[in-house]
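Office hours follow-up: a student asked to see two folded examples consecutively, so here they are.
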Amino acid sequence: METAGLHRFFRHKHFSHDYHDTQSPYVVKEYSSSEVVEDDYQYKAEKRIQGVVRKKMVEKYIREESMIRGPKFVVRLRSHTVFENTPIKLFCTVEGYPTPVVKWYKDGIILDNTSGKYIVGEKAGSHTLEIFKCETQDTAQYTAVAGNIHGQASTQASIIVKRFKLEEETSVYAWLPYQIPILPKIQYTKINITFLETFGAVFATEGVSATLTCTMTISPNLANLQPEAQWFRDEHRLFDSKWVKMEQGQCVASLTLPHLYKEDEGLYTLRMVTKGGAAEHSNFVSVADGPPPVPGAPGAPMDIKIHDANRDYVIVSWKPPNTTTEGPIIGYFVDKCEVGTDNWVQCNDSPIKICKYPVPGLFEGHSYYFRVRAVNSHGISKASRMSQPIAALDPTEFEHLLAKKLGGKLDVVSYHDDLAAEGAVPEVPSGVRASEIDRTYVVLCWKPVAYHGKAPMWYYIEKSLSQSGVWQRVNTQVPVRSPRYAVFDLTEGKQYQFRVLAANMYGSSEASEPTKPIHTLELKGVPSAPGQVIATRETNTSVLIQWAPPKEPNNLIGYYIDTCVKGSKDWRSANHKPHKSTKFVVQGLTTGETYVFRVQAINELGLSDESQESSPLSVKAALTTPSAPYDIALLNCDGQSMVLNWKRPSHSGGAKVAEYYIDKRKIGTSVWKEVNIPPIKQRLHKVENLSAGSKYQFQIYGASLAGLGASSATSMVFSCEAWTIAEPGPAYDLTFCEIRDDSLVVEWKTPVYTGAGEITGYLIDYAIKGSDSWTTANETAVNHRFLKVVGMEVGDTYVFRVRAANSDGVGVASLASDPVTAKALPGVKEVSCSVDSDSGDIVLSFESCQMSEGSTFVWKKSYKEITDFSKGIMVKTVGSISKLIFKNPDKEDVGTFSVSVTNTDGVSGSYSISAEALEKMLAQSFDIRHPIIPLKTELAYKILERGRMRFWLQAENISSGVSYNFFANNKELSGADPNKMGHDVATGVIEFILDHFTEDSEGTFTVQIQDGRGKAQSSLVLIGDAFKAALAEADYQRREYIRVKEGPHFSEFLSINVGDDCSVSLVCKVANLTKESEFHWFKEDTEIVPNEKTDLSSGACKLPLAQFSNKSTGIYKASISDNRGKDLSQIDISGQVFADIINEISKLAGSTAAELSIHCTATGIQLQCHMKYYTSEMNISWLHTETKLSSSEKVVIGGTPSMAVMEIIEPVDKDKGVYSIQISDAEKTYTRTLDLSGDVYEKAYAEFQRLKAEAYAEKNRGKVVGGLPDVVTIMEKKTLSLTCTVCGDPKPQVTWLKNGQEVEPDDQYVVSLDSGKFASLTIKGVSLEDSGRYTMIVQNKYGGESIDIVVSVYKHGEKIPEAKPAPTPITIIAPKGPIEIPTSKMAVPTPAASAAAKSPIPPKGTKSPSPARSMKSPTPTKKK
């Protein structure tokens, strides 16, 4: 009954909500029946007039879509009833152009959203009001009012907030006569929408098509409750049109742009609207300029708009294109085309510079399209997208319509003019003003005349320059019926006045009042450059750009953003349609690349200067905090601590999760406590200090550079009881690699708790995700921590677990792994193995199908990362290809090698090298690395003149980079003079000319050739009769040459002679000499002049090499010459030759070496071995018992040319023992030993202590540093001052003597010692008696010294006696008692380390056995 009554109530009463009354929030006005009838008539009259207007629009061929419209609510607010403390959100969607501004009201009062209680949101035309926690005082009527310049619209909804006890609630509508809610509670079906596939960013050019598609799931999917797909571009809703096609159905929504223009660029949003809310997805569509008609021509203008359409003119505006890569724009051409034709007509003869142009001369009632083309120095651009059709109509024509009531019904609709009386002249127009002012035109409007004549009426417009008083009629040709008119062809920057006259066939009215002076605009120029540009990271392919607006906007239209790779100067447009906001997301950038950005402002005159470039920014995803760790596992418990493990967060947020924090909570308490103050680096941690028998729960946080992430879910309850089971605990950290359609590889880590014995193997189980049926993958336990599981079903998702086993059985299983799907990544490739055809290296190669910033290749052997690269293994990575290279492959390289790529979706692969395959590859590698050079002929010889021997062979082919070496009996032959060595690339001949072929040349001659990696070797054996024949031929050729040439020559070439005394000499013999023959020695081409001139009478020449050592190495030459010619011989003392000489010296010195002797010094005990010759290059070793000694701070090894020395510094008891020296040659080792122990050691040690004490006393005794003369001559009555510096530790005492008697200080004799350092004797007024010998004694407990000074006094006027100083020796004073060395001052002189010295340094006082420069080197007796 109450409901029926309410329906009757509504049927007889009419309500309108009015929300300006503050007394009652809900006021209902009731109207009488007569008022209702009148209101209904007025409504029908308006509908009738609108019908007539629509009909006339069709008759006049008007076809256009309104581009300017008032607000309209597409989705209106809905009322809700909610309980206290619950949230509520109101939704509404409004359209209109320009974009309406929405304000919210509560019970007619504008809403205060600064308190934080109300949250107002807006996105792409959808507006929301949210109350997070409703209270009873929130019960009210809420209104959203949307408005723009074309009007307002509103929508209302009520919110009723109830308490939980409904009977206690009093409704605000209780004043109504019926006790039922006005707004019953409505239960909406909640529809959930999940996007499956979404559209990405689109980068296209003008002229092509693009389709944006989203697929989704709708739950529940009800046929009568399908969501509405709404598409938006830059927050403006789109509708089906010629340029936009939309489709929806079967959980798919798509939008097609059939012919892209730059107007289509922007952020596209799909909003799926349901009763319970909306789901949406957005992405950017970029539309670049298409190919220009002429190279270098600008892009097309865009956004053609029509303003102030009238019966004979319109005003066209547009936006300029971006000219980042083209030249500046000179101007624009505007074209028009009548609807229904294809005839485009250019409206302006010359280019206009601003982006606005009035087009006159249109025909009334006709509709037109417009387009614009840009011009620069290279040519004209493509035309812009044509405008929407616009009709040339009088906008006030239908204001004269009148609906006439006949008999209570509407019968006639006519113009006011048709009903007016005839014969009247129009009244004077009024309210003339300028609605729009530009540079060359003004749009006038005025109040229409209240016309009462039947004849047609029109207007005349007149203009006048201000203060000129001269009026000129503007529209003499075209009558104006509309109270609006555009006056063109005005002068820029001038002041005008205008007036209007109304006229009909009966005459014209008086002129209206003139307007106030109207100043036409002057060009202000383009905007100033935008301010600072700041780039910040957005995603791994986009960057957010923000900038400051220009200080002089000058009617700013928008901005163009340019981008450039750092350092390239190749600027590209980021947007091709002006962007209005000072923020822009630049899409389509390359991850990891570094960019700079700049911005230009735009107005109707063109583009501003570029802003300053932003700071370079590398494209990376913005960092976010990591997600929560999960799957906390207990790996061990000893009753006081627990070992925990967990899985890393699923999402790192763009930065490595490097730290973890653990909180614990004891069961029975609600307080969480931190386990660790410093962060944990690993995902394995031992939580200590727990209570035995208690139970705990844990939470874990992950942290990265972006901050602390969310906490994990609370772990299971873990009991702190010691594990005593015999079987192993669970394994952990199960990971997967090499995921393919039917197989994958599982890896894990060893259990922390091993049970009663060592782990002997592992069993791996798997199950379909969501199933409890586990299958064991391996029948036999594996003893390594990886397993390749095969037999998977493609596309199925599995979980795995691992059970460790020992001798006591199989332990508890690990936690189940993360789900893994048996499906290979698209494009994944396998590891390949090959032998490099150039280097012979064995190469494992892998190409990754995915790469991202920071991706690295990790190579493993047997699934353990390879970290040892010392055995010739190296990794080479270029782009997405990584190679594991075996530079020195061997049999140990058998096994499974795997590779994984970080920062990807699990890209990995492996390759197993078997022993058989490796053996084949090693053979192939050897063949590649050791190719053989084919030879045409083997090594042969030919004897040349002078007895020289030519060895040669011929190869099939050689390059200019060929290298070769010749050997005789395994000794390399030198190609230096007088020998020669060379090759001919054209013929492949390689030769060596041996200058001296002698009896010593018998043996095997070999040549080794290398050309690139190719090698060859050939040998020639010359022994026995073959050698004798060759030698005889060589001797014959040599003798014949000498006979013919008759010049001096070497009969025996240079050789080395080592004498019995170990002296080394160069010897040779010369022949065929004369008195003019000269002999010279050279070393490294520098002449050596011996102490005695070489005696050539015997023909034997000798050059001693004194003190032979490494310094003696080099190339020695000898020459003999006279006017008949010159002969040369040389020998290279280095390498094996030098080693042979040292070996011979070692043999002679070692066989004759004396026994070891002891020599003590102040620093230690020396062991000396006298021998014929010693040099550091000899193979000599010192040993203490069986331990080989080497030079150090404790042991100094060296020697002199006559002995080898080893000194033990500061000997101690452990230095006792048997010492030996070993002198080795190529065949034998000579050993000399000495037992340094017992009395021998005690005596030596006592001597060392004595010398050490003497050295210490010598160092610290009193000394005279300097300052005293030997003889002093002074005139009497003068003052004599004898001053010097003394030193000693402790400070010494100074005593002065005169003629052997101590000087007693008095007034004449003043003795002083300042600071224990400066000693002086001053004699005042010297007399002849003061002449004599003065002695200064400086002494402390360690001894001292005395020095004499002769003083000679002469009388005034006498000749100064000649001083004849005689060197007076310093007398050393011995210590007064035994020398005691303080323990804190044990430092004594330390011998210089001789390890770095090539030749040993003899001890102090030892004379060098080297002869003086004028002495001859000892020459061994000539052998007979």
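And the second, which I mentioned at the end of office hours:
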Amino acid sequence: MAEGRARRLLGSLWIALLLGQPDPAGAAARSGSQSLHTGSLVRTFTPFYFLVEPTDILSVRGASVIMNCSAYCETSPKIEWKKDGTFLNLVSDDRRQLLPDGSLLINSVVHSKHNKPDEGYYQCVATVESLGTIVSRTAKLTVAGLPRFSSQPEASSVPRGSSAILNCEVNADLAPFVRWEQERQPLLLDERVFKLPSGALIISNATDTDGGLYRCVIESGGTPKYSDEAELKVLPDPEEPQDLIFVRQPSSLTKLIGQNAVFPCVAVGFPVPYIRWTRNEEELITEGSGRFLLLAGGSLEISEVTEQDAGTYTCIADNGNDTIEAQAELTVQVLPEFLKRPANIYAYESMDIVFECEVTGKPTPTVKWVKNGDMVIPSDYFKIIKEHNLQVLGLVKSDEGFYQCIAENDVGNAQAGAQLIILDLAPATTGPLPSAPRDVVATLVSTRFIRLTWRTPVSDPQGDNLTYSIFYTKEGINRERVENTSRPGETQVMIQNLMPETVYVFRVVAQNKHGPGESSAPLKVATQPEVQLPGPAPNIRALATSPTSVTVTWETPLSGNGEIQNYKLYHMEKGQDTEQDVDVAGLSYTINGLKKYTEYSFRVVAYNKHGPGVSTQDVVVRTLSDVPSAPPQNLTLEVRNSKSIMLHWQPPPAGTHSGQITGYKIRYRKVSRKSDVTESIGGTQLYQLIEGLERGTEYSFRVAALTVNGTGPATDWVSAETFESDLDETRVPEVPSSLHVRPLVTSIVVSWTPPENQNIVVRGYAIGYGIGSPHAQTIKVDYKQRYYTIENLDPSSHYVITLKAFNNVGEGIPLYESAVTRPHSVPDPSPMMPPVGVQASILSHDTIRITWADNSLPKNQKITDARYYTVRWKTNIPANTKYKTANATTLSYLVTGLKPNTLYEFSVMVTKGRRSSTWSMTAHGTTFELVPTSPPKDVTVVSKEGKPRTIIVNWQPPSEANGKITGYIIYYSTDVNAEIHDWVIEPVVGNRLTHQIQELTLDTPYYFKIQARNSKGMGPMSEAVQFRTPKAESSDKMPNDQALGSAGKGSRPVDIGPDYKPPLGGSNSPHGSPTSPLDSNMLLVIIVSVGVITIVIVVIVAVFCTRRTTSHQKKKRAACKSVNGSHKYKGNSKDVKPPDLWIHHERLELKPIDKSPDPNPIMTDTPIPRNSQDITPVDNSMDSNIHQRRNSYRGHESEDSMSTLAGRRGMRPKMMMPFDSQPPQPVISAHPIHSLDNPHHHFHSGSLASPTRSYLHHQVNPWPTGTSMSHSDRVNSTESVRNTPSTDTMPASSSQTCADHQDLESTTGSYLANAQDEDSAQNLPTAHVRPSHPLKSFAVPAVPPAGSSYDPALPSTPLLTQQALTHPVHSVKTASIGTLGRTRPPMPVVVPSAPDVQETTRMLEDSESTRSHLLSPSFHLPQNYEPDELTKEMAHLEGLMKDLNAITTA
């Protein structure tokens, strides 16, 4: 078998060469009469075709019919006939017989109501044995029905010279058998008297001889059938004009090319009308035209119609008085015609061929294929491609025969055929043939293609000259297909257009110059499965169930490829391009809410788990009709005479017809008798003449449109009055009897009286006017009107006015008048009322909506005239007088582009024409706040005099604050390019414009940025400002530095003012300094007092510390471990908890509480209270202990202490503050007392005579000197407590503690947030020693009540707990919260800025304070003070205290 196929394939190469095919495996060899010579084998195409084919026939009952058919072939063909697709048995049929040429004779056609054996479709079939079969076109035999008249002629009369029509409507099949008789004699037809194709008779230009009795006769074989007789009377010419009407209008036609078409059109009236025609609104010339003929009465006949004749034809009848027209469509159909007929084809087995067939026709024909007389059913191997072509894949011998392309449309069918010859392959030439290719494998397998590769045969290892044929087929199918390699030596091929998930069998055959060799072993390969999507849903149907709904049904897809999950139903209105869809679970759905009487298209897509499947074809359905939803438009009345009124109207608006308008219903009544209504139903014309009315009577009319469903809404009643008498309208009206004009500013009132001759019809008046000429504008008014106001004129202008009466004949003689309009200065008697109820609605930070009401409008506030409103607005600043304005035509306006957080005032006025109102009452609105949109400006950084490690940052508020500034955040870093979250944060609360940052590293460049915030958030940052700290500290601070250098570990660093002067005999100043020549007695008293107090405090603290329990120390250690254990940085030294000072809020005392002697605190953490409940009220029972530990703290220590700690709730998240690696010193903090644990440290004043130098003494080790900040350094600024380096260390045995600590400024803010607002907070003094001072209530704010809310100026987001490494190298000091290189959230901070009197009043509490104020931070005393100078200073301080008392009272 393989060898035989190989030989046949080799033969195909030689045959292809003979046919001139470049491809040895070409699709097919095509020829009309070629012969193929393969050795001695000769095969030719055999001519086989029809000479004559049957045609459509119209017959009558009992007649004989011949269906012609004749076929040609060298061998005489056998002819058979099919009727309605079934072969006729003509042998035993005595009525039907086959004629010698193949035609079919039917004797005595049988046709009755229930038995129609001969009517149907006939087809001639010709067969030649061993060659094939061909079929002819199908021909329709139609048998005319029994003679019946659907309408018969009726008696009528016709004026002489006019046209008449006599009806004789019969079945369309019988129309050709109709003839007419006059007086029972055959009527001769000519150009004046002719018969329409429907059978009706038209007589034009009637004469007296046309009168008589007429009847029509049907002669369809057998006994003629006569209609009733009708008499036609010819009347003399009418004396009066008659209305022009159609007695026969043209109707739409559908004709085949080459047929004749007749459009009947008969109109009657007097004068006799003239008929003309247009096609597609272009005049149709009938005279001299060979194909367009104007028949009697005006009918149009078109001979041998062509496709170009299709269009809209309009019959226009005109008799000089009136014009009417009627339209009809001509549709031209075309029988199927072949543009390209199938061609004969030579081919070989396994090849693929295509029969081409191109057809045209109108309507577009459908194509089907027939092989040897049998229908070709499309399959995997027989496919219809490109709509009309037939493709046959993998030919086999049985495919040989005749193939016919049959094209069919509504008007006919045609066939064209071709022959397919399957050739046998010639035997191979002598010579060695290739062996079988080796190792055939599928290297790539997809869903629809497979790539095969193989090795060359053993007989030819090089294989350069070998070509290969790949034969393949579906498993179990005998029909093989072949694919050839594209070039010699190629050992791979891609087989495409396969089916998914299908097993194919492949084999490869090599060919050389001698022919094909052996076939390889079969290889079975299964294609990959494809994602199986559903097929189209079959039998989709759409049924209109109501005027607004359609029900769509369908069936489950045949190839669901799994469970169908749901369907999507798409629908779209005809003429639109937007589809709508709905998900459906079942097999039907009703879509509601559609438009009435509107076409919609529907399609369905099935969904399975893989997605959407194939869509169905669109089905189109029109919703049902309904009554019109709107009345006709533009109803006008025209009084014709004393007894008739003509109505004109327009159809309802498009989209409201709800169906086909079938007519119009007219209802009318007398105005005086509204209950008596008369109805008149007319056709589709848009006019109606109502006659028979009474003279001089007013009638009301209304019109409604009709559909088959009923009557739609009617128009409003429109009235008109008939004339008292029939007036003359054969001439134009006379001139009006008078004309009067009354000029105003912008208008002229025109009044007149009618013409004196009342016997001529006046249908209206035409008023012409213009400046200097009356022809600029013309206005027409009703005949009843006697005055008119001409509006919109120019003031102080000269107008010429004419008045003419007119009727249907024309316009009469004009009457002229002139007038000058008044000047514009004439005051308007009715000024406009201003708008009321103006309201401003805030929408956003820059938008406000203004609304108002207008009392001059109706209650519904609907604006119907040309008025407009002007809105004006400005900021509510007295100095700002500049308004912005905008116009609006509605009762609201959206004002945009406003500034945030700004109060605006708005007012509105109304303008109508040249009248305007006054401005309305104003409405106010403040726009919402917005985050600042500009950074703080004028940022400057300066070093603090005498303190090189402290800098002062100053700035100005942002120019676009967009709200109340609630604080600032200062960012600083030593790396200007660092990420912003790596900068150190300094929060500043309130609207202060300066801030101090302490403990910076010397000789280091710092970069500063500032960011403002308001209630809406943070604004942009300022540009970075660089500042380099000085290289060394100033010389006048050296004593303090040396003192700090000898201090022990854990001591608290306190800044020393730049003008600090140590007292005489200062024990902590090793170098000593010149002492001011003060009164020795005063100094002695101060020294002794301080010494005594110090000794007492030391003793009390020592006793208290010894009573501290070991368990308490363990708790503190555990607490410290729990806190420090989570620190991110771990140091080598132990953590120490700096001492806290608790402020007793009743007596304002500073208490050292819960202190640990641990020498190395690395971090301090402080819980932030979020409301007043976080601050525990003081326990009065603890007063005794508080008095025992009362200490005096002056200067900035006391002020900063209040901002050190606001709460100690252990449950709060901790806020970690890294300090320098040098051992920090205790931090004095102000805090409400929670408990009275024994402190680890006792403090006492170093010298009463020197309040600027307080001494902190440890229980065991001496503490370094702590100095207070000068008062001038503290005004309008906030300082953060910073640790300064200390060289001394604490004993290693000191217990490790945890310290709660918080930045001074942040704590102050959180504590004072509920006590006072920001203004009062700035005047708060710091903690005092004496509780008996009269200003205690002012200096110490009461603890807020538990129920009061906490409203921080900044978000109170707690910071994460963090630690810093203990390292000997200097690190950057933290300004507030966080470390250098870590972002910190802002903290609630409110820092009071007290007046100068604040510090001094604290020192006047007792005699010791009176002396010590001489050296207070408020004064920088010179080296020598005289007693008189001190007295003056005392007096000055007393004055300041009085001022402070007055402030607190206010």
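Two things to take away from it. The chain has a mean pLDDT of 74. The longest helix spans residues 1080-1106.
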